[in-house]
Each structure stands twice: as C-alpha cells, then as structure tokens.
Amino acid sequence: MNLSMEEVFAITNRSHRIVALTGAGISVESGIPPFRGKGGLWETMNPMEFAHIRSFRKDPARVWDILLRTMKDTLDKARPNPAHEALFQLEQTGRLQGIITQNIDGLHQAAGNRCVVEFHGSFAKIRCTKCDRTLGIQQLSLTQLPPLCACGGVLRPDCVFFGENIPEETMIKARELTLSCDLMLVVGTSAEVWPAAELPHMAKAAGARIIEINPEPTSLTLHSDGLLQGQAGRLLPKLLAMMT
Ligand code: NAD
C-alpha cells in the first residue's frame, strides 16, 4: 500500500523507539550503485563472482582485483547524502534507537550516527584469514594481490560474503534493536538478502509498524504497513522537517 507523507508522519510521530534498516539504496544518491533495481551492478555483472565466499576462496587475487576496480574508488569518494543526514538528525531527537545497515560503506557513521550495526561488516576493515588480525584498508599496500598479512595469511575484506553467516555478536545486537522497536523504517533495501530480510518480519511479529522508503515496491511491501515511494534523499529530510 502506498502511503502519503502525512500518513507516514502520523505513524512516525507516534513512535518513540524507531529503528532504521538500511540497504544499498540509501547510498545511491552518494554515487554508490546498488546490486538490484535500476542502475544496479547486477545489470552489468554477476555479484556472485566477487561477493560469494566460494569465489574468494577459489581465487582471492581475482576477487580483490574486481573489488578494487569496481568499489574502492567509489567508496573512497562517497560522502553522506541528505538521507544519511536525516537519520543522524533523527538520532539526535532521541527517537531513533539505532540503525541496522546492510551497507559496507561506513556512510552512517560518517554522517555522525552513533548506534550503527554493520550487519554485513565493513569494507574499511581488512582481516587476516589465518591469524584474525584486523587493520584499516588504508594501511594496506595493494600492489600485490591478494594482500598478505605479516603471518603469511591471505587478507580479506571484513565484510560478510554471500554464503557466510552473520557474526553472532552482530546478530544479537540486530535482534535486540529489532525486538525493541515500535517502528522499523526500511530504507533502500530490496529485502532479498537473508537473514537481513527477516528482521522486518521479526519486528512486525513483536508488534512494530513497518514502513518502507523505496522508489519501487519490494518483496516486503505486501507485509509492511506501507510504502513511501521515492528516493530516500528527498523523502527522509522531508519527513524529518515535519517532525521537528
Ligand atoms: P539491493 O541492491 O538489493 O537493493 C537496492 C534497493 O534500493 C532497491 O529496492 C532499489 O529500488 C532501492 N533504491 C534505489 N535507489 C534508491 C534511493 N535513491 N532511495 C531509496 N531506495 C533506493 O540492496 P540491498 O537490499 O541492500 O542488498 C544488496 C546487498 O549488497 C546488501 O548486502 C548490500 O549492503 C550490499 N551492497 C552494499 C552497497 C553499499 O555499501 N553502499 C552497495 C551495493 C551492494
């Protein structure tokens, strides 16, 4: 069901424990292409080639090469857009309890949000597959691929690849936020990637309202309380302006 801004405002205004679940779509207006939807990476390449753990284990140098060519520059240049900024301001009002993001771009933290669960990890961090040491991607020499740790182990991005489980601590934090919210704003996600896609259903079963902000309906839309249709960078600041 499509909702008007006034209807969403009325629901949001009654809510005091809001949680945002965000996906690639919220960063589109920062210049980072999503996987699915219009202009998504899936139109030109198969993300399974660089985003599945099987591909990384088989040929880490190739996956690193694709990630560096397709993502690193884009992520380095990206800055928070008005949608990220609106969520920061919503946290400042005390009504946004936290953000669960599927994104690996760090833009919610760059906007200033303090409570951010990075459900799929972060591209800014690197982890050794042998000794588990972590370091920042900026500390890394990327002249030789795959990059190696001092211990000789292959270094990997500290992201959750397709085919891997969500770390337990992350899952616990995400569940806590999900089960305690009275409204979940689901922004810029196709709700196709599990277990992240399960979180709005969990929130709803625990009594929360679910509102999506997305230019297109998704597989969640039938189960949500409504869709505010359009770009997050335009709609979230408008919603916030009505609230403050
Ligand atoms: P997705 O690519 O599957 O879906 C993107 C969704 O965003 C679509 O439903 C699309 O209609 C919507 N969208 C497009 N432009 C929008 C806008 N301006 N405002 C609001 N919504 C918009 O993304 P997903 O559901 O997050 O799942 C893909 C997986 O790939 C996730 O793990 C995701 O984090 C990862 N990924 C991350 C980034 C990033 O960190 N920025 C980029 C690409 C993919």
Report the mean per-residue pLDDT as an integer. Answer: 93
Largest sheet: 6 strands, parallel
Q: Which distinct ligands sit in these coordinates?
A: nicotinamide-adenine-dinucleotide
- CATH homolog superfamily of the largest domain: TPP-binding domain
Could you say which structural class the secondary elements and strand pairing correspond to?
alpha/beta
What is the CATH C level class of the largest domain, in words?
Alpha Beta
With strands numbered from the N-terminus, the spatial order across the biggest sheet is 3-2-1-7-8-9
Content of β-strand: 15-25%
Proportion of residues in helical segments? 25-40%
Helix and strand topology:
Blueprint: H1 5-13, E1 18-22, H2 48-51, H3 53-58, H4 60-77, H5 82-92, E2 96-101, H6 107-111, E3 116-118, E4 121-128, E5 134-136, E6 155-159, H7 168-180, E7 183-187, H8 199-205, E8 209-214, E9 226-229, H9 232-243
Parallel strand pairs: 1-2, 1-7, 2-3, 7-8, 8-9
Antiparallel strand pairs: 4-5, 4-6
Helix pairs in contact: 1-9, 5-9, 7-8
Bound molecules: nicotinamide-adenine-dinucleotide (NAD).
Binding site for Zn(2+): 128, 131, 149, 151
Keywords: Metal-binding, NAD, Transferase, Zinc
Active site: 120
